[in-house]
Specification:
This protein has about 240 residues and is α+β, with helices and mostly antiparallel strands. The chain has one domain. The chain is about 25% helix and about 25% strand. It has helices spanning about 45-50, 55-60, 65-70, 75-85, 130-140, 160-170, 220-230, and strands at about 10, 15-20, 30-35, 90-95, 105-110, 115, 145, 150-155, 160, 185-190, 190-195, 200-205, 215-220. Strands 1, 2, 3, 4, 5, 6, 7, 8, 9, 10, 11, 12 and 13 form a 13-stranded antiparallel β-sheet that branches. Strand 5 and strand 6 (about 115) form a beta hairpin.
């Protein structure tokens, strides 16, 4: 049995450790932390199925897969993030929940910084996503600093079209009617960062940009360059 906030050691040798805790965001269900790929077989069936094959392979081949991805990247800020990740320690986290979709991610710690990637995934909203963001999704999926905590680059499955955003949040704050087609791909402190197919960005949200878009015209290349730099340092990217 797992007590709230208390890590329970499921197995441990000199080379491997698998830990189980209650869900860190109090969303019901356990969380598992693995340091060795072989421990994946010790997880409950539901937890095993939460780990996509591509993410499990990245964990099994750490750090070689990340090093090779970095060499092949055309977007330099992403290559730098992968180099930093490959130089740190790597833990596979699996979070089960009664209230939200189960999540698996690789968490890296290096030089006091910590960030997680959800793993390469098929891209939804393909026609609406500019190349640099598509490269991030195809290589690492989503990125966050803490599970279910504000300040995350959404995984492909979490990206919201403008119409989906209106349907989900239109009753919470005013959203201008005349906006170009775009997708929300990052959230922090109640604000959402959008990008258009052409690579322009703007913010909408409840914190700084209620009822009006902000920071219009800043390119997604420039935004991602600064955002990935912040992630490498274990920091959130904030609206200017």
């Amino acid at each position: 049995m797992c007590e709230d906030g208390v890590e329970i050691e499921v197995s441990r040798t000199d080379a491997t450790m698998l830990k189980k805790t209650t869900n860190p965001s109090d969303l019901g269900g356990p969380s598992f932390y693995l340091t060795m790929p072989s421990d994946w077989k010790k997880l409950p069936t539901k937890a095993q199925h939460t780990v996509a094959p591509a993410l499990l392979q990245m964990f099994a081949d750490f750090p070689q897969t990340l090093q090779q991805l970095a060499k092949n990247q055309r977007f330099e800020p992403l290559a730098k993030l992968l180099v930093v990740a490959a130089a740190g320690s790597c833990v596979l986290e699996v979070h089960l929940s009664e209230y939200v979709t189960p999540t698996a991610a690789l968490t890296f710690r290096v030089d006091g910084a910590k960030f997680s990637i959800t793993g390469p995934q098929d891209i939804e909203h393909e026609m609406s996503i500019p190349t640099p963001l598509r490269d991030v999704h195809r290589s690492v999926g989503g990125i966050y600093l803490e599970y279910m905590v504000s300040g995350s680059l959404m995984s492909p499955a979490g990206v919201l079209s403008l119409n989906e955003f209106r349907a989900q949040f239109g009753n919470l704050f005013d959203i201008p009617k005349r906006l170009p087609p775009a997708v929300a791909f990052y959230e922090v402190d109640g604000d959402y960062l959008f990008c258009t197919k052409a690579g322009a960005t703007f913010w909408l949200g409840s914190e700084h940009y209620t009822g009006k878009p902000g920071a219009a015209g800043k390119s997604v290349d420039a935004v991602l360059t600064e955002m990935l730099k912040q992630f490498r340092q274990g920091k959130k990217y904030h609206a200017p």
